[in-house]
Fold each of these.
Amino acid sequence: MFLSDIFTFNCNERMGSLRGARVALIACGSFNPPTYMHLRMFECARDVLEKKYGCDVVEGIISPVSDHFPKPGLLPSKHRLRMVELATRNSNWIHVDDWECAQGTWTRTIAVLKHFKMMLSRRDSGNTHLMLLCGGDVVDSFTKFTPSGTHLWEPADVSEIIRDFGLVVIYRRNSQPQATFRKLSLAKQLLDNVYVVNDDVLPNDISSTRLRAAIKSGHSIKYCTDDAVIEYIASNGLYRGADDEKVVDSNEREKLISEPSVR
């Protein structure tokens, strides 16, 4: 990955007070199952922050959504948590945290970020800056609406996330994060906290959806995720059929549409 393939939203060299900072990255989502794309996102983000902006990226946190998120096909958190543990077992900086998936209700992304900011502040005396790591498809969902006509993401949440935490966005095929940010009409000083990473050298379109479909149809998923994850899926008979589907109340489905699980 070349630095020329990495750019901030406004294509400038500004990074404000974050230049040279100690940074932790957090990715929220289903991880159903975790893939190499999820891990690759962390590596791409660390490359741009360290090599281009002189940051010290000290930690990568994966925060799986709780079982209370009404998403069809969402496996119980005990399985998703264990799979992420297996996928990250050889990493010296990326790990999974069970706080979000242990909550008794679905937790909005802004609340998750505030929790981990507080934890990092206690541990590091406020010296570590937490940033949200996500794909371009998640950014595109910022402007979407639920079937009932309400915002999928609360506009105030989006502004607060960008202002107080910042975003590192990994471009995904068919995503248009730059266009989405323009639609949001955010203040320029907020957009200075958005960094879009375009990994043209090693693009990765692996997705959990594709892996689930491949498993269900009997195809191999080797080299798409860690071998230990593949073994866990096989030994527990996961993603094989309708038994994996989670029943979702129609009213809840109306309130929280199924994609994405980060908002």
Amino acid sequence: ALDRDSFNQLSKLDHFDGQHWTQINGPGVKTEALRATAQELHVFGDGVFHLSGTTWVAETVPGPATWLEYSDVGNDIFLVGNDYTTTPSTPRLAKRQAGTWSAIPAPATQTVCGIAALSANDIWVTGQDRDPNTFVYQATISHWDGATWTITKPANVTSACAIIANAGEIWVAGTGNGSILRRATNGTWTTLNGAALGDIRALVVDATGAVWASGDNGVIMHR
């Protein structure tokens, strides 16, 4: 569990061992995501940190960037974020393999915010562009095949961040009209109506392979 202050800094973490809760200090930086396994604990945001005993250790990651989300492939970690020190911001991707971080080419979109990696040569990234003339926002879904990025812009979806891979399909939650877009195995996008949720913020796959979506107003949808 995360305990953030008003500046989105991770001040405390709460851990439950099945019987008791214990609390430790956070790294004290803006934090966007937490990754916990049986072997290690990472936080991502303005930097990447792992917990060594009770001490947070900064890892060297190509950047600069505010890291927003991650995806695991075996023992490798894939990260997505943006460098907000530039105008406009610059998308960043990174990969950790055997304990070392390296940069990955980013798609030619204005921002990125979600990632689902199936392998080093099969990566899906969500993001957003804004038209400089109309100021209208447009969601982007980008696919990396190991050599090039292919960018899709789904109609009537202003932003898409939540993304998961499930049984050979890619699911993306879009905001603006509450739609969910599903990529079938033949590459065709099918739009599913999720308007009852308002803006959809998160997707998860359970142990049975079912997809759950959560949105505004505390609503949860199951498929």
